[in-house]
Amino acid sequence: MQIEIDDKSGFCFGVVRAISEAERALAEGGTVYSLGDIVHNRIEVQRLEGLGLRTVGHADMPRLGGCRLFIRAHGEPPTTYATARELGIEVIDATCPVVARLQRRVKEEGLRTVNFCYKGRKADTGNGIRVTVLYEEATANYVPAAAVIRRWQ
């Protein structure tokens, strides 16, 4: 059997950009903390950990004052940025430009978002595929892997 990998396969543009930004930050020296895995690829995460990247969760943020916190391509809600500011955390924002543009559009147009999750993903609490409607009051602009709903009935 011969396996051929398509020459266009690999990480999406936003993830490639985020990895490059993480490498640049790590090259400056010191530890960089990533809010969640930078990419859903254990080998790449381990490679970056070897360079000094440390994966943390939101609960770890209070102990990161004065540290550098990396926001991966998926982006984060505004509350995460506000918390980082309050705690004196330096944010390295590698949110994918496509995601950021969609976040701005959702905020500006007051749209709702629907997040599609698969069983086993962090946001999943049920069986199989589920849909989660995300609300963030007047600033509903956090859109990880989402579809924008124009008409909701």
Descriptive overview:
The chain has 153 residues and is an alpha/beta fold. Helices cover 31% and strands 20% of the residues. The protein has helices at residues 13-27, 42-50, 78-87, 97-109, and strands at 32-35, 53-56, 68-71, 90-93, 112-117, 130-134, 146-149. Strands 2-1-3-4 form a 4-stranded parallel β-sheet, with helices on both faces. Strands 6-5-7 form a 3-stranded antiparallel β-sheet, with no helix packed on it. Helix 2 (42-50) links the parallel strand 1 (32-35) and strand 2 (53-56). The protein starts with 12 loop residues before the first helix and ends with a strand. Mean pLDDT is 76; it is low at 117-153.
Secondary structure elements and their pairing?
Layout: H1 13-27, E1 32-35, H2 42-50, E2 53-56, E3 68-71, H3 78-87, E4 90-93, H4 97-109, E5 112-117, E6 130-134, E7 146-149
Parallel strand pairs: 1-2, 1-3, 3-4
Antiparallel strand pairs: 5-6, 5-7
Which terms summarize this structure?
4 helices, four-stranded parallel β-sheet, 20% strand, three-stranded antiparallel β-sheet, 7 strands, alpha/beta, 153 residues
How is the quaternary structure best described?
A: single chain
* Helix and strand composition category: alpha/beta
Helix content: 25-40%
**Low-pLDDT sequence parts:** 117-153
Number of strands: 7
What would the principal axes of the Cα set say about the shape? flat
Mean pLDDT: 76
- Biggest sheet descriptor: 4 strands, parallel
Q: Helix count?
A: 4
Distance between the termini: 51 Å
Strand content: 15-25%
Radius of gyration: 17 Å
Q: Which sequence of strands runs across the widest sheet?
A: 2-1-3-4
Order of helices and strands: HEHEEHEHEEE
